[in-house]
Design a protein that fits this description.
It is built from 16 helices and 16 strands. It is an alpha/beta fold and about 425 residues long.
Length: about 425
Amino acid sequence: MLLRSRILIPMAAPPLEDGAVLVSGDRIVAVGSWRDMRGHFTGPAVDLGDVAVLPGLINTHCHLDYTGFAEHLPPPRSFSAWIQGVLALKAEWSFTEYAVSWLAGVRQLLRSGCTTVLDIESVPELLPDAWTSTPLRVISALEMTGVRASADPAAILGSALKVQESLRHPRCQVALSPHAPYSTRSDLLSLVIGAARQRGLLVTIHVAESDEEFQMFQHARGPMYDWLKPQRDPSDCGHRTPMAHVAASGLLGATTIVAHANYLEPADVELLAAAGSVVVHCPQSHDYFGHAPFPFDRLRAAGVPVCLGTDSLMSVRKLGRPTLALDLFDELQLFGRNHPSVSPVERLAMVTTHAAQAIGRGSELGALRAGAMADLIAVPMDGPLARAVEAVTFHRGPVPVSMIGGEWGIAPNGQVDV
């Protein structure tokens, strides 16, 4: 199939006008100008019209389980209070409610141009059916906690690995997610990275998300420390930052994606750079909690890759919108307002090429080039070629077309395959 668009944004090459993508099976065969490619191709062609075609967006941090919790919790007086509110909500939900919430989340992502998501999964029992219910590429990171000292880290990891071994899907995969340093034990972190490296699995963890977490580990004080002290051994607090605590466990590395990293000392940035870990920033969640400014410039200067994620709808402000939805374009736009010196190309790379590299799929996803997976989206485009990338980052609303592995996610007639 040959796809034509007014503008093509391959990300692996400069944008071009009147572009075309040749797809065979689940792969891209060639990318170039319509005139050149049409002359050498006699099969079916689809003219997508006045759109820009670009790689499908990659969401590197999401909680699909919690989509249905949108607007259930107001911005909290403290991060610890918010977590307690989340735990209370989760305790009230049934398996069916989680499944409905998960499916609502993937529909929202698909409609807003996402083709791959790294999702933190707290209800792994729903995955066998959920994976087959969406065309999205889903990396389900199995969440592990065990804050109480009596929880055996080996048993916690063993349960997750049994789930990993039981799941097989051509498009979806499993990763591991020890939740956060405050909700896990350091020996669990060490066990996780060992198992992940042995099995070739990605790892993702929330680290240094809040000032309360920073105060807990660095100074053994604050609301989080006071709340958790009766529930976990506090002897690991008062010595080092949350990032240094995670680094000491051996968890940082090239296959570890660190979510948030909002509160960092200079040495923490050096640890991330030396380990080759990737950071995922969630602008709307960051705004919801009123965190200190995200240290993007320090991370970029140190060579730490930064991607963007949506987090969950539990930590998004409505801000006059009629409904809330998981949407990476919203994250791109808020990031751009907060970091206006970052170019549109670099911003778009945070949800395409950089994100693909972060999940270990840099040769297959995140760019339109020969040999890559045929994952692409189209957005309406009526402006000049020179402003195309910038215009794409300001897109609002559903995307009219998406393709995942050579199959329509959203067909040109607007039909959604979910």
